Structure formats: C-alpha cells, structure tokens
C-alpha cells in the first residue's frame, strides 16, 4: 500500500518467474485491508463479550 500511495500508482504488476501473472489494484488492497480489520474487530468483540468459537 505504501508503494502505491508514495508513487501515486493505481496498479502494480504481479510477476512470477519473470512473467506477468496479474495486476493488483489499490481497490484490491483497500478491500483486503478492510476485510482484515473487520476480522480483528469481530475477534475482539467475541473476546470482550466472552464468546467462544
């Protein structure tokens, strides 16, 4: 995310053995970050409320 923000990029190439295998967009990274944060929030809520899996 820092690389994209610092360089004002919208997409980064994903390379596999010197071959282009895809692109990652800033939207992809934002969605992943939000999803990860929501997972942590849900875990903390369960912990605080005393719920067990």
From TrEMBL:
Residues of the CBS domain: 3-32
Give the matching SUPFAM superfamilies: CBS-domain pair (SSF54631)
Q: Which superkingdom, per the lineage?
A: Bacteria
Mind telling me which InterPro entries this protein's record contains? Answer: CBS_dom (IPR000644), CBS_dom_sf (IPR046342)
* Pfam name, any one: CBS
The name this protein carries in UniProt is CBS domain-containing protein
- State the organism of origin: Pseudaquabacterium terrae
């Amino acid at each position: 995310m820092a690389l994209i923000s610092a360089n004002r990029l919208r997409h980064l190439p994903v390379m596999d053995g010197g071959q282009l295998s895809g692109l990652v967009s800033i939207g992809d990274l934002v969605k992943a970050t939000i999803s990860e944060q929501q997972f942590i929030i849900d875990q903390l809520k369960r912990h605080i409320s005393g719920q067990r899996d």
